[in-house]
Design a protein that fits this description.
The structure is a homodimer. The first copy, chain A, is α+β, with helices and mostly antiparallel strands and about 350 residues long. Chain A is built from 13 helices and ten strands. Chain A folds into three domains: about 5-65, Arc Repressor Mutant, subunit A; about 85-140 and about 240-360, GAF domain (Beta-Lactamase); about 140-240, Heat-inducible transcription repressor hrca homolog, domain 3 (Enolase-like, domain 1). Chain A has a five-stranded antiparallel β-sheet, sandwiched between helices. In chain A, strands 4-5-6 form a three-stranded antiparallel β-sheet. In chain A, strands 1-2 form a two-stranded antiparallel sheet. The radius of gyration of chain A is 26 Å and the shape is elongated. The first copy, chain A, binds a DNA duplex (30 and 30 nucleotides) through helix 3.
Chain lengths: ~350, ~350
Amino acid sequence: MELDERKKKILQAVIKNYLETGEPVGSRTISKYTDLNLSSATIRNEMADLEELGYIFQPHTSAGRIPTDAGYRLYVDDMLSGKQEELSQKNRKLEEQEETLKNMQEIMDKRVDRIEEVLKDMAKMLANNTNYTSMVSMPQTNKNRLKFVQLTQLDEGKLLCTIVLEGNIVKNEMIKISQNLDQQVLLSLNLLFNNKLNGLTLQEINFDMAANMADQAGEYGALVTEIINAVVAAIGSADGIEIFTSGATNIFKYPELSDNGNASRLISTLEEKEKLTELLTDSLEEIGENTTGIQVYIGEETPVNSMKDCSVVTATYEFEKGVYGKIGIIGPKRMDYEKVLDALKNVTGNLDKTFKKEKDEG
Amino acid sequence: MELDERKKKILQAVIKNYLETGEPVGSRTISKYTDLNLSSATIRNEMADLEELGYIFQPHTSAGRIPTDAGYRLYVDDMLSGKQEELSQKNRKLEEQEETLKNMQEIMDKRVDRIEEVLKDMAKMLANNTNYTSMVSMPQTNKNRLKFVQLTQLDEGKLLCTIVLEGNIVKNEMIKISQNLDQQVLLSLNLLFNNKLNGLTLQEINFDMAANMADQAGEYGALVTEIINAVVAAIGSADGIEIFTSGATNIFKYPELSDNGNASRLISTLEEKEKLTELLTDSLEEIGENTTGIQVYIGEETPVNSMKDCSVVTATYEFEKGVYGKIGIIGPKRMDYEKVLDALKNVTGNLDKTFKKEKDEG
DNA sequence: GTTAGCACTCAAATCAAAAGAGTGCTAACA
DNA sequence: TGTTAGCACTCTTTTGATTTGAGTGCTAAC
């Protein structure tokens, strides 16, 4: 048995209907809903086939059908392959997105210096707009270049190390030192670091270089090593992957996500954030020019256990050349994929533009 | 009718029992539970009186009694007045707190530079330990003194302003400037700011001073004003009151907080955080030497709407002289007040010590 | 290949009855 | 006069039986 055109149409009708209502859909509904002009009996036969093929299933004997993960997958892949895209996009843009776009502009016009703020606002807007939960990761710094280091003696035995990365991400590290430094020494250390480390990525600051610099610093060798460690830690520290979430409570709008202690588990994951990194760091390397950087996890496909009843859609934005961040949506499997994909494309597009502009003028 | 000793004992018994079980408690239970040696019938009479006095009530005719807000209030006030404190504290210390204390030490031994980290860890530990939700506010900066300002030219037209407050709270502001500055000017500007503003609070940096400094700066007057504004904004900005929460999902352990959409409302408040400021900024001024800085809101007493079924206990810690932060617990009205009060006292005590030590050695 | 018709299945809603916890009140008791 | 035993009463919760209704699969006819 294979999936002919009619079966495909019926499957799509089932899914669309289920997305809207959240109720299992029966043959009678489809018989009216589509323009196929088939009786419910015929639809029933076809649906039995679709069930056998693994695209839909019945929660119990006397209920309508619900899409399986495979069913959703087919549906989403179809959508991603872009056959219906132009059409739907046009419709949406006109109807809904108008105000979305206005909001977005507003957020972007905000002081652009503060990426964190921008991203948080973005997440909030996305969550409000889609009625799902959203998450954003700060641009991954592990490929980011060091732009500037500034050492300042703050107290006896305390050195404030201000580290600026390409794209003006600022980090502060406090270093405890055993010896006190006079202004002169501090100045030359500052020079040393900016000369040697400027423009380097985390990977490029390797052991050799550190040893080399320590040598060069003579009696301050130990200190230099200490400082390099701090810089490295600041840039690439494991908790460098900062993630913000928004709209966690939207999950209460979908009983399948909030009943039976699911809410607790889900919100726990959102609160702890560690698991989210799996969704937002994964496969950054795989992104080529040809793909959109969009990834869809449906149900069991997600690597996060508490989200096996969810679908997760993530998209990649480019902060600057080679430095990416991700933005994602978490919702029920019966989410409005079309809307979500549109919204994400929109947002990442805008982010890309904003950061590019920012960079050009800076 | 008044509240004699026996009634008080019975009320306490009712509350204690209810705290443990979460079920309405009946006369028979009390008759056995207490050492009063009274029959259930007698207890019933007394309970009827207590109900009339407004300290307990029946959810329905054939159920046991539950404490009212007033009942809880009496109970908590009694506890706060410290009559039974010594006894219970000793018991607790021995039984439970031992590992708590060990945890705390561990957290405190962490790099102390990072208040934010310390506070977050503290909140997490508190939540885990009490099984309630916790929140912490960063020390209020609006009374904090400026310690150090550092201006750095970052790009064309961009000035990075690193601001360190007493207690080593570091903030970064990015300032867009119209004119470019050479190294020499930057140096003297740095000197100017550190000479003039060092050690001042937000209040002490007033208009006169700003005008004065602008005058003194000659052709850079406009720029100086711009920078002072940035400094002031950085210190006192409305979003300066940072709040961290932890253990939000603990509310699912208490049906009265999670049923009927309560969970959604509560977690929403925790996520948005704005409302929490009402709990964590309120009445900082009222704290004298004599009080412990502990505040208990029971049910309707809380200023936050979504928490009318909760009790909130907050405590104040001293970050440094005159600079306070707060730490709080949100739980059901039937929370274990004794445990919570102990835990909070413990934590604030430790925070005070840590920050004092930190300051002394710095 | 399509459809009408019908028997069948099973979840969900409805309803009635029973169980159980706890009370208030009365009458007896010390 | 305060305390207690006893009992009728109330109201929630549990349980079980019945009904309802949506939807199916199958068969036979078109």
